């Protein structure tokens, strides 16, 4: 009895040791992890690179929740918070998901403090029909299920590809692909756009 | 195909392109990162963070050392007990001692009644002294036996001892396998799978 139990425990420990070694290999390949490590070490240039890479993601997430005119300020606040608290992040590979959570929380905080009367008060540079249509489409995207909103706004507004969305949000490629496809289908239905086939 | 364009911008999809153009007014305008005045704090992970596999290996090594020390200690104490067992060792020195004090045949002693009377008394005293010495040696043996219990084990104890030794041997072999697996040795992982089956 004792030897089987000892053997079972040893097997569990050997599996744990093997899995403990696996994440180390993944970190060595991911360039975002290297960026995060350099930022933790105080590298301002790395922080600038991190900002350029992830600012569109944060902006897209925030844009879903706050007026366009407030989004840029919140993006700046998010990255200041990231810079101050990045040392608390244990797993550097989890940075994209961690950053997205901060962005959502900051956007929710803003909306709790200030409630704009109507979305039409978007601070648009061009006051023409295109701006109004843009606001209408954005409102429709905001009305979609939550899992479809972020991939769609990152794809259509920020111009990221599906691969970039997956890498910078911590989602899997398959998940992003499914949400993009289904979200686009619902968006077409709500906008009354028929699907054209080549 | 449209889905390809939606995924990675390959191919064409006029409708999606139009939506992109319209919504581009909301796109994030590239700007410089904010420059916080405070430098980020260093990661506090090196001080206490310890790789999991080394922790397990150290734990197993400590358990093995403790068990080995526990098993070795009674064996060292048993040695003097075993040496006390043959009680006959005590007698020759005692006998030699009294032999000198109890001369049976002496050529210089005149053969008279006083001497004849002295001989039985001397013999009695010699015997008494022998008995006393023997009793003292027996008491010494018993005192030693009390301090150091006999190494003789009961059947249950023997069985438990055997089980313990078996567990130790298995643990030692498995520890080696774990070490080999951590170091990436393929043969070690195969041995582990065989032993589990």
Entry keywords:
heterodimer; A: 198 residues; mainly alpha; 75% helix; globular; B: 197 residues; rod-shaped
Outline the structure in words.
The complex is a heterodimer of chains A (198) and B (197). Chain A is an all-alpha fold and 198 residues long. In chain A, 75% of the residues lie in helices and 0% in strands. Chain A contains nine helices and no strands. Chain A has helices spanning 2-29, 31-40, 44-63, 68-85, 95-113, 129-143, 146-156, 162-169, 173-191. Chain A starts with a helix and ends in a 7-residue tail after the last helix. The model of chain A has no long low-confidence stretch (mean pLDDT 82). Chain B has helices at 2-8, 14-23, 52-84, 91-101, 113-147, 155-182, 186-196. In chain B, helix 3 runs antiparallel to helix 6, helix 4 packs antiparallel against helix 5 (113-147) and helix 6 (155-182) packs antiparallel against helix 7. Chain B is rod-shaped, with a radius of gyration of 44 Å. The two termini of chain B are 52 Å apart. Chains A and B meet through helix 1, helix 3, helix 4, helix 6 and helix 9 of A and helix 1, helix 2, helix 3, helix 6 and helix 7 of B.
Residue-averaged pLDDT of chain B: 69
- The number of helical segments of chain A is 9
Name the quaternary structure: heterodimer
How would you classify the helix and strand content of chain A by structural class? mainly alpha
How would you characterize the largest beta sheet of chain B? none
Q: Kindly report how far apart the N and C termini of chain A lie.
A: 69 Å
Q: Topology as H/E string of chain B?
A: HHHHHHH
Question: What average pLDDT do the residues of chain A reach?
Answer: 82
Shape of chain A: globular
- Give unreliable regions of chain A as ranges: none
Largest sheet of chain A: none
